[in-house]
UniProtKB/TrEMBL annotation:
Domain of life assignment: Eukaryota
Record's protein name: Pyridine nucleotide-disulfide oxidoreductase domain-containing protein 2
InterPro entries hit by this protein: Amino_oxidase, FAD/NAD-bd_sf
Keyword Flavoprotein: yes
GO cellular component, one term: mitochondrial matrix
Alphabetized UniProt keyword annotations: FAD, Flavoprotein
Task performed by this protein: Probable oxidoreductase that may play a role as regulator of mitochondrial function.
Gene3D superfamilies given in the database record: FAD/NAD(P)-binding domain (3.50.50.60)
Amino acid sequence: LLGQILDQWFESEPLKATLATDAVIGAMASPHTPGSGYVLLHHVMGELEGRRGAWGYVAGGMGALSQAIARAAAARGAHIFAEKAVCHVLLGRDRRAQGVVLQDGTEVRSKLVLSNASPQITFLELTPQEQLPKDFVQRIRQVDTRSPVTKINVAVDRLPSFLAAPNARDGQPLPHHQCSIHLNCEGTHLLHQAFTEATHGHPSSRPMIELCIPSVLDPGLAPQGCHVVSLFTQYTPSELAGGQPWDEGARNAYADRVFDCIEDYAPGFKASVIGRDILTPPDLERIFGLPGGNIFHGGMSLDQLYFARPAPSYSGYRSPVPGLYLCGSGAHPGGGVMGAAGRNAARVALEDFRHL
């Protein structure tokens, strides 16, 4: 249990709760859930520019990272089809993947197909079911994709000023504005309470909030004097109690609750809001193809990691269909902006390609 690990190393409850957020981030779990300690490890592994466990902002926003990968691929001769939805994987008579068919009927032929879509989309929607073992399909259907995350993007006309560290008179950013700010995290019991409410189908009454202000480090994201605030909040269940829909009323009610909490820490925040974009778990699934809204393409629990990700005997990136590979977050080692799954899958695919 994460709680036991933190108790061994730290005495301060606010510090323990702050560290605990990285153990439950994106996971329908509490600090008291068995195996939650691994998710913390997953978030602090690796390094950034030589600093172990460090994280950073991408200049220009996360989309800039995708564009950088696209430019590198194009420089090596890759052809990129943007805004072209894939209908299904094209199979030959020998049951090997031979490319993909787009929704407009265009066939894109290839000796190898690598999918960074979720296992659910790759194998349950894009691959002919008769070509897959029944036990494999059953396993993919059983993957736990519950998500607690509602992402809220906010535009504000001034920098938030927190009671614990008020802004200077000139309104210039202070060191804490450049960091991840954790709210409603004074104790791990608050995280557990927020989790418990969601397990009963109710959005947390006091949500866990991670607040970042990327425009402080990347001024080009907002007009001068204004800022963008990124709120990563939980817990919000994918399905609300009583079958209630995540309609506009439910979205706004939850966002208002989040903003009320921020207002307690930074009076004047609500008055500074110019606009907001609310993405509940169903929205994350619909817009980004994340099963259940899960940012990792499936829970990072111990029964869905290592040799069992996405299914036993298929953790090596190869799928039951020869020539079809899984290279996204649903493959080993799981989610996160690190590219490990893609790099590993590419090496496996290249090894197979040399023997074709």
